[in-house]
Amino acid sequence: MRKPYHEFSDQELIDKCRKEDKTAHEMLYKRFYAYAMAISLRYCINRDDALEAVNDAFIKLFKTIKTFDDNRLIKPWFRQIVVNTSIDNRRKNLKHAAVLDIEYADEAPADHQIISKISAEEILKLLAALPEMHRVVFNLYEIDGYTHEEIADMLEMPSSSSRVYLSRAKEKLRRLVKAHFYLNYERAI
């Protein structure tokens, strides 16, 4: 009796994909689609852009799967493809969004009690409220762990600009947390 495709390990699917097995391509796609969308949505303005980036990333994956090093894990390798593809798809719009805001004032840091009560969904909504360039740099640096130099190369900007965008993203997040959660928290006390 033949083993069903959904029971194959990642490596077994990769081996079958290398042999141009279309069912293995489909199973690998289904296995990593949600993972890829979750990553892409952090870099794209809307779901349609994210879907386009994910599909482009899968095309790149299947074109290069023969060169995949079996000593590596597929998820981190594919994550890199998704991030790069999402950024490539957004690069033109990011160049137009590179205007920096100049209205900044020092504010007290957010209360840690409030921050600990914010759900992951609420955090994602706050991130979505950031200006595009701030959100992209924040995601690349804080969530995906890229250096400012790597971000600068990806977004074709000086590394100092990456640092500025990150700093401003954090400041805007502090303001958003204060605006959205302090009032509700203070009323609940």
UniProtKB/TrEMBL annotation:
Pfam families: Sigma70_r2, Sigma70_r4_2
Record domain RNA polymerase sigma factor 70 region 4 type: where: 121-173
Molecular function terms from GO: DNA binding; sigma factor activity
Domain RNA polymerase sigma-70 region: 28-93
GO biological process: DNA-templated transcription initiation
Swiss-Prot/TrEMBL keywords: Sigma factor, Transcription, Transcription regulation
InterPro entries from the UniProt entry: RNA_pol_sigma-70-like, RNA_pol_sigma-70_dom, RNA_pol_sigma70_r2, RNA_pol_sigma70_r4_t2, RNA_pol_sigma_r2, RNA_pol_sigma_r3/r4-like, WH-like_DNA-bd_sf
Family membership noted in the UniProt record: Belongs to the sigma-70 factor family. ECF subfamily.
Annotated protein name in UniProt: RNA polymerase sigma factor
Species in which this protein is naturally found: Pedobacter cryophilus
